[in-house]
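lol forgot to send this yesterday, sorry. struct tokens for the thing we talked abt
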């Protein structure tokens, strides 16, 4: 997987999730492969896959797997923050590495502002409000120290 397209990366991630049950060995292999790619290609592909994960109750492992790759590799992305956050109500609240990755990429304050804006402009949604509160909670932690341990 040295060269490839976003679709090929997404296929590899999907295979890792569905066939390899998000194993640590597969995570290490994929992390190594992605680290040798254009960070923008990898970041966009991982986030595109992330945005397809719709059920936070049943897709914790998949979300954790992808968020862990995003956080460890910290790849750039061309996707705008509001587009990424549009699916916030689908995020499993226990996956702390997703808000941490976004804070690394966009800056903590910008992420917090975008979450606040999404919360105020969206229709009244209990799941979105809870997700926004949890997002803010995770960003209070020392995600930079955690990042130093995984990179």
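and heres what i got for the seq, position by position
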């Amino acid at each position: 997987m040295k060269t490839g397209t976003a679709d090929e990366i997404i296929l590899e991630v999907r295979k890792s999730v569905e066939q390899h049950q998000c194993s640590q060995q597969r995570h290490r292999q994929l992390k190594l492969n992605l680290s040798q790619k254009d960070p923008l290609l990898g970041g966009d592909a991982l986030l595109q896959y992330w945005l397809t994960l719709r059920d936070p109750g049943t897709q914790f492992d998949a979300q954790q797997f992808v968020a862990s790759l995003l956080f460890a590799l910290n790849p750039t992305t061309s996707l705008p923050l509001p587009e990424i956050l549009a699916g916030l109500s689908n995020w499993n609240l226990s996956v702390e590495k997703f808000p941490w990755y976004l804070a690394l990429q966009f800056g903590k304050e910008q992420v917090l502002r975008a979450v606040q804006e999404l919360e105020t402009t969206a229709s009244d949604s209990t799941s979105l409000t809870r997700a926004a509160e949890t997002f803010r909670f995770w960003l209070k932690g020392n995600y930079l120290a955690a990042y130093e341990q995984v990179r």
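The chain has nine helices and no strands. anyway ping me if u want another try
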